[in-house]
Amino acid sequence: MRICGRILATLCFVVGAQxxxxxxxxxxxxxxxxxxxxxxxxxxARARNGALDRDRVAVRRAPLDMEGFAALPAExxxxxxxxIEAYRVHAAPLDIGYGKLVDVNYAVADLPAPEIPAELAxxxxxxxxIYRDLWWPRHDAANRAWLRExxxxxxxxxxxxxxxxxAAFQHPWPAAPLLVEIVAYANxxxxxxxxxxxxxxxxxxxxxxxxxxxxxxxxxxxxxxxMGTVDAGLAKRAKALGKELSRExxxxxxxxxxxxxxxxxxxxxxxxxxxxxxxxxxxxxxxxGLLKLYWQPxxxxxxSMDEALDGIVKGL
Length: 316
What we know:
alpha/beta, 2 domains, 12 helices, 4 strands
């Protein structure tokens, strides 16, 4: 897909003007008990299962977050353990960002969804009063403090970030409301999103989701809704060459693009993937050299998206 400079400039102006007035209204930030409880139980259950992500920064503190638990009456401790066990069996083996648990995420966020499976609904009901009294006051306070740090950044820099993302991805900014559930613990990455409808979960206690890193991650999650043009281009070229691309190729382009936009907007910002060594990991790392070689010139206006995607797919 090619967009002429005049049309693209007009598009960026319109989106930028809209973002200036509407962006904070479009983002719907919430700190709600049930999404926090659901994610907390999920991460505790993953730790009990010995999941590979149990030691990731975003979730490794969850099993240690036990202040006051030993002082609870034995019956309450038993109910809490039963709730974790239900999550260990029925939720922990699943990815919270895909498949069956997505409906649960929507349901606890009060979005239209099928009924929560009985085993998990029972666990939530057992755990609710215990979590409400013991953990929720401090988790909610952490969530609200995190939002007080993030909101001014969104207001100041969001209108500058949005038109750059629109131009880079050659895709409109999403028009739907963007619900952001702020949770003490999210998943191994500290943030993730599901698309229909858009729902973003972000961790307030993850040390890698603070300050300008949180700002980049917020727009990273939103950018999952803007990858249509890139993904179509990748699929077309992969098919022509008889290649099968990992979804991490698209994710690498997303990481690189949002990080570069944030670096341009906040000159002292270190892109998230650089800051936390993501380019030294697995599939993302395999793409980094190709992104520097082909995608960076595109972002600098020295080549087209078609040329950049040609180079990336041929190089994989």
